[in-house]
């Protein structure tokens, strides 16, 4: 992906009846690579606008305030571009 078209969803709703998803999700992202350059070689393209980072941060903060727990980093990653949310950490336990 090059960032030219959004290929992701904004929200995923998962019921408590799917605990196996919580166990599989961190493993599913372990090999994900940020697309640092415009060659399309990575798995995750950066956000284009800083305003979108602020919108996503507000959504994550709201979810956490309402009792969600974060499996993801919970903050933007800046590495030659802006990615949010960051990849799963090895110690993560719950999806936000």
Write structural notes for this entry.
This protein is mainly α and 96 residues long. The protein has a domain at 42-96. The protein contains two helices and two strands. The chain has a two-stranded antiparallel sheet with strand order 1-2. The longest helix has 16 residues, at 50-65. It is flat and about 40 Å long. The chain starts with 18 loop residues before the first helix and ends in a 13-residue tail after the last strand. Mean pLDDT is 66; it is low at 86-96.
Structural topology:
Elements: H1 19-29, H2 50-65, E1 77-78, E2 82-83
Antiparallel strand pairs: 1-2
Identify low-pLDDT runs: 86-96
**Rg:** 14 Å
The total count of strands amounts to: 2
Enumerate how many helices there are, as a single number.
2
Our measurement of the CA-to-CA distance between the termini, rounded to an integer number of angstroms, reads 24 Å
Return the average pLDDT rounded to an integer: 66
Helix content, binned percent:
25-40%
Sheet with the most strands: spatial strand order: 1-2
Return the structural class. Answer: mainly alpha
Shape: flat
Strand content: under 5%
Element order: H for helix, E for strand: HHEE
Biggest sheet descriptor: 2 strands, antiparallel
């Amino acid at each position: 992906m090059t960032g030219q078209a959004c290929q992701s969803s904004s929200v995923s709703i998962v019921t408590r009846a799917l605990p196996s998803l919580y166990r599989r999700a961190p493993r599913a992202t372990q090999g994900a690579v940020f697309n640092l350059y415009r060659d399309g070689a990575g798995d995750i393209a950066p956000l284009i606008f800083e305003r979108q980072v602020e919108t996503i941060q507000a959504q994550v903060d709201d979810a956490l305030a309402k009792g969600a727990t974060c499996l993801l980093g919970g903050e933007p990653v800046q590495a030659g571009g802006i990615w949010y949310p960051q990849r799963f950490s090895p110690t993560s336990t719950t999806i936000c």
